[in-house]
Write a structure and sequence with these properties.
With about 400 residues, the chain is an alpha/beta fold. It is built from ten helices and 15 strands.
């Protein structure tokens, strides 16, 4: 059943960049699905409090394309003639063509993004578009601590090829999403249910990417678990949440945790199970887990004969569990290293269904143990105690 939800999110809805109509359409899909499963559903709207990393390029024919907009680059929109500077953005590349007041276009590689941006600005460019040179390269990056006084965008190799056909034409780059941009969380619980265990994953993507792995996989498993548990008495102790605007700063989970604190409900939450980018990668899997839950979760993985061990996320990677952990809520997040994220190759074709089944199985079993720990009326099929041997789970997640 998880795959069915995954295919709709990544296949039929496609890119769901934070704060866009596509993201809102995905929120509606989550809400409708939770409602059909018998849950009471709340749309929790919140303000995106920082500049969204989403850029929009408007073409002369009235169509638009989405791109990654570097944090720290100018947020104003500009219009100008598109000019290709041959090379990768060295000073001599910009000197070889007239980019003054124009939108410069260069290739990715060799020198840092921040240096490309500084060189373009020094040459008088009104904006800079950097194109990936390989299919599947990441659509994200950083200017480090630098500030650019011109808009700086990163586009896929495919969009770069399209823009090359428009060299000499006038295009425009829209204003960056302002601080009053909006997104929404989708919160589902049984009637009169409590949020003792929070299960969730974000449903937004980086611009222009289907996001099958990051993170239709996690949002789909959230829906699948909601379906599996819908008739169980312990469902009254679970809140299932699709978080919005994760890709531009974990805004959805931040807003949700803030609302719990403001309403005096944070103390009711005993654990948070996070699911993000769980459809591609390789074993052994990392388990990002709070110390009180470490032995239980590692023991469960061993019982299920799934290669997963406590570890940490790679540097510069964050996810929604962090906002819970920061306020003392124990968290569990199983994460496969090496998966495709932030790339046009993050599509349904590259989902590893065996891996997805592994992680779905482990999350399903861990949820039962988290509920037992919270005092919910449940006796897990697979005992949570470390000393219990067992065979691989036969959980029917349909992945």
């Amino acid at each position: 059943m998880a795959v069915r939800y995954l295919e709709h999110l990544a296949g039929e809805l496609g890119p769901r960049a934070s704060g866009t109509e596509q993201e809102f359409a995905a929120a509606e899909y989550l809400s409708d699905t939770f409602t059909q499963l018998g849950y009471e559903t709340e749309i929790q709207q919140f303000t995106i409090r920082s500049q969204a990393n989403v850029g929009r390029i408007d073409l002369a024919d009235g169509s638009s394309r989405l791109a990654f907009r570097f944090p720290g680059s100018r947020s104003d929109g500009v219009a100008g003639v598109l000019v290709e500077a041959p090379g990768v953005g060295e000073p001599e590349d910009f000197a070889s063509v007239d980019v003054d007041g124009k939108i410069a276009f260069v290739e990715r590689g060799v020198i840092e993004f921040r240096i490309k941006a500084a060189n373009a600005e020094a040459a008088g460019a009104a904006a800079l578009i950097i194109a990936n040179v390989q299919v599947g390269e990441s659509l994200s990056g950083s200017l480090r601590n630098d500030i650019s006084n011109i808009p700086v965008l990163l586009v896929s190799q495919e969009l770069g090829d399209e823009l090359r056909e428009l060299i000499g034409a006038t295009i425009s780059i829209s204003n960056a999403a302002s601080s009053n941009g909006a997104s929404q969380n989708v919160i589902a619980r049984t009637p009169n249910g409590a949020c003792r265990v929070v299960v969730g994953g974000h449903y937004d993507t980086v611009p222009g990417v289907d996001g099958a792995n990051d993170n239709a996989s996690g949002a789909a498993l959230t829906l699948a678990l909601a379906e599996i548990w819908s008739d169980h008495p312990s469902a009254a102790d679970i809140c299932f949440i699709g978080f919005g605007a994760e890709e531009i700063g974990l805004h959805g989970s931040e807003a949700y945790v803030r609302s719990l604190r403001e309403n005096g409900q944070l103390g009711n939450v005993t654990a948070m199970l996070n699911m993000d980018a769980i459809g591609d990668g390789e074993a052994p899997y990392q388990i990002v887990v709070s110390e009180p839950l470490k032995s239980m979760v590692e023991g469960m993985a061993g019982t299920l004969q799934i290669e997963a061990y406590a570890g940490n996320l790679p540097l510069q990677i964050g996810s929604d569990h962090m906002n819970f952990s920061n306020v003392g809520v124990p968290v569990v997040f199983v994460f496969p290293l090496g998966g495709i994220i932030h790339s046009p190759l993050d599509n349904l074709e590259n989902i590893d269904r065996d891996l997805y089944t592994d992680i779905a199985t482990l999350n399903h079993a861990v949820l039962a143990c988290l509920l037992e720990r919270a005092g919910s009326p449940i006796t897990p099929t697979i005992p949570c105690a470390l000393e219990q041997p067992g065979a691989r789970s036969h959980a029917t997640l349909g992945t």
